[in-house]
Specification:
CATH topology of the largest domain: Rossmann fold
Strand order of the largest sheet: 7-6-5-8-9
Largest sheet: 5 strands, parallel
Shape: globular
Order of helices and strands: HEHEHEHEHEHEHEHEHHEHH
Number of strands: 9
Number of helices: 12
CATH superfamily of the largest domain: Aspartate/ornithine carbamoyltransferase
Strand content: 5-15%
CATH class of the largest domain: Alpha Beta
Length: 305
Amino acid sequence: MRHFIDLAEWSTQEIRTLLDRALTLKAEWREGGNAPILKNKVLAMVFQKPSLRTRVSFEVGMQQLGGTAINLGPDEIGLGKRESIPDVSRSLSVYVDCVMARVFAHEHVQELARWSRVPVINGLSDKQHPCQALADVLTIHERFGAVKGVTVAYVGDSNNVAFSLAQALAHFGAHIRMASPPGYTFSEDEVNSIDKIGEGTGTTINLFENPVDAVKGADVIYTDTWVSMGQEAETAQRVKIMQPYQLNSALIQQAGKDSAIMHCLPAHRGQEITDDVADGATSLIFQQAENRLHAQKAVLATLLT
């Protein structure tokens, strides 16, 4: 039994196989629909945080593959509060075939997996967002025909999305540039994890403080919210510190070409990204959103068949 918690726990070949499967499932869907390979399978979706893309893409993905999904909100479970995580995990294991959890603390999804008798998928935690990262490499592959050798500049807070993105890019041999203010960069452990994945793939990672240095010549420029759920008390401080990292036309022009624009959503327009950039001709934002569906179908199909 496998879990999908951390991209470092999957080999490069396995991650590349997931990408191939996502491409196949997307093409199959567009040609008339997916085969019901998950008939009679049930996914439990556990949410501590509000969700749009994660909830809809997983529920629709299960339907398209012939299965069903059950939504369990914070008031219905209360992980670690109303009931212990081990008890929640062991109870769900006798009812469903897979669990997807969108949580605040990464330790919560790890503990769910530790006690579960069925596969557990990390739908987002404070440290990682592997489902989004798989959708992102699918999007980059579609745009450039490959991920290897593509230069991706990430600008802003080096958060959970940035870390999983860098891990995914390392599996494919992309060139990674991270531009973040002091105090908001990757930890040494995170850099080591990315480097270890990238051994032998040809990937490179460079950290910058100046966003202009990061975006010059980049094929892709990526950003995410400056204030994640649970960080609301830091809003004023973060917005002030991150202002030079806004994805706007002035910064994009420094790239020197028509770089593709990416954002995992939700976007706080006017903060980390401006409307003209988010809705510009080279924006891949809503292609990314669509690809959450197909990337996650690949994960579900791999774990459950």
